[in-house]
Amino acid sequence: MRIKLLYLTCALCLLAPAMASASTLEYSYAQISSANSTVDLVATTSGSGTLHGVKCIFPSNDSGAEVKITTTLDGTGSSFTIDPTNLEREASGAGQFLTGWIPIGNNFTTSIHVTLNNTNLGTATINCWASWFLN
Questions:
Q1: What's the pLDDT at 6?
Q2: Please, what are the domains in the chain?
C-alpha cells in the first residue's frame, strides 16, 4: 500500500510544475501624470487568456484628471472613463480616491493591449494596475 501511495505522490509532484506552467497570472502597472497623454498598462501581448480587472488610485489633490482605459482584445477595442469625483475617498493615507478592482472578465484568443489616457487635461499622477491571465 505504501508503494502505491509513493508512486501516486511522485506522479503528482511531476505533474504539478507542468500544470502550473500551463497558465500565468500577470499583473501590470502603469503611472500617468501628463495631461492628454497615453501610456500602456498592458503592452501588446500575443496569446490567449482573460483580462480580469483594472484598479486605479487618484491622488487627494486630483486636479480634474480623468483616466480613459482602452482595452483591445483580439483587435477589437472598447473603452470607459473613470472620473475620480464619483469614487469613494480613502479615510486615511492622504485621502486618495480609490476605484477598487473593476471586474472586466473578457477573454481573448490572439492578443491583448490596454492603454491609459489622461483625458480631462488634469495633471494628477494616477496609478493603475491590471490583472490578466495568459494561457
A1: 39
A2: 23-134 (2.60.120.1390)
